[in-house]
Amino acid sequence: MLEIQNITKTYGSFQALRGVSLQAPEGEVFGLLGPNGAGKTTLLRILATLLLPTSGTVRVNGLDVLREPEAVRRIVGVVNGGMGLPARLTGREVLRSFAGLYGLTQAQTEARIAELDERLELGRTLDVRAGEYSSGMKQKVVIARSVIHDPAVLILDEAASGLDIFARRTLLDFVHATRAPGRLTLYSTHVMSEAEEVCDRVAILHEGQLRTVGRIPDILADTGEPSLERAFFTLIRGGPVGDGPIQKGQSQRGGPRAV
Ligand SMILES: Nc1ncnc2c1ncn2[C@@H]1O[C@H](COP(=O)(O)OP(=O)(O)OP(=O)(O)O)[C@@H](O)[C@H]1O
C-alpha cells in the first residue's frame, strides 16, 4: 500500500530526513512517532505530494508520488497543521466546495456530509461560519474536508492537537473505523496513549532516521519495556529509562526493524 525507499530531505545544509525506508500494508492504522524536529511532518508532506524529497522514491497504491502526483492526490486525504478555512463559509459550504473539486454529484455530496456529520459529530458546526469556530470546531471541519472524497490513504499529522477530550474521543473512534481492507491511515502524534489505542504498527523517527518499525507488542518485547512511552524513550535516548534493566533489542538501536 505504501512503500518508501531511502527518502532524504535536505533544507539548505540541514538533513531533515536521512534515508528513510519503510512499508505500510493496507488495512491498518500506522503511527509515526518522534520528538520535535524528528522529521515526521517533512516525511508526511512528501507522502502527500506537498513537498519534494531530495532523493528516494515513494509509492502509494503502486503510484509514484513524484511521477504521478495528481493521481496520488485523488486517493490521499491529508490533515496537517496550519490548514485554514475560508472565514465567511460555513462548514457545510466548505465541504460542498471540496466535494465539487473531487467531482462528487450533489446527491453523493449530501450523503457524504450526512455520514461525516454522524461520524465526526459535526452538529451545529456545519452551519456556523468558519470565522466563528473554536479551534476544535475548525479541526473537525478540516478533518471532514480531508476525507470528503473517501480517500484510500488518510494522513493525519498531529490531528488531535488542540482538541478537547470529547473531540479527541470522536477523532480516535473515527481513526479506528478507518481500519479496513484497501485502506491505510498514517497517524502522527506525540501522545503515546493515542498511538497505543489506534495504531497497529508504529515507526519511531529520530533525527531524520528510523529507530524502529513494528507492531507495538513486538516493540515492547524487543525493548523489554512495559509501555510504548518507555520503549519510545529507550529507543530515542539509546538507553534504558530510569533504573530499568537493559533488555533485548539494544542491538537494534540505530537501525530499524523489518516490518
Ligand atoms: N522549511 C524548512 N526550512 C528549514 N528547515 C526546516 C524546514 N521545515 C522543517 N525544517 C527542519 O527540519 C527538521 C524536521 O522538521 P519537521 O517539521 O519535519 O519535524 P517534526 O518531527 O514534524 O517536528 P514536530 O513534532 O515539532 O512537529 C527540524 O529540525 C526543522 O527545523
Automatic annotation (TrEMBL):
SMART domains: AAA. GO terms for molecular function: ATP binding; ATP hydrolysis activity. Pfam families: ABC_tran. Residues 239-259 are annotated as: Disordered. Residues 2-232 form the ABC transporter domain. It comes from the Bacteria. Keywords: ATP-binding, Nucleotide-binding, Transport. The keyword Cell membrane does not apply. InterPro entries: AAA+_ATPase, ABC_transporter-like_ATP-bd, ABC_transporter-like_CS, ABC_transporter_ATP-binding, P-loop_NTPase. PANTHER family: ABC TRANSPORTER ATP-BINDING PROTEIN, ABC TRANSPORTER ATP-BINDING PROTEIN NATA. Belongs to the ABC transporter superfamily. This is ABC transporter ATP-binding protein. The lineage of its organism: Bacteria, Thermotogati, Deinococcota, Deinococci, Deinococcales.
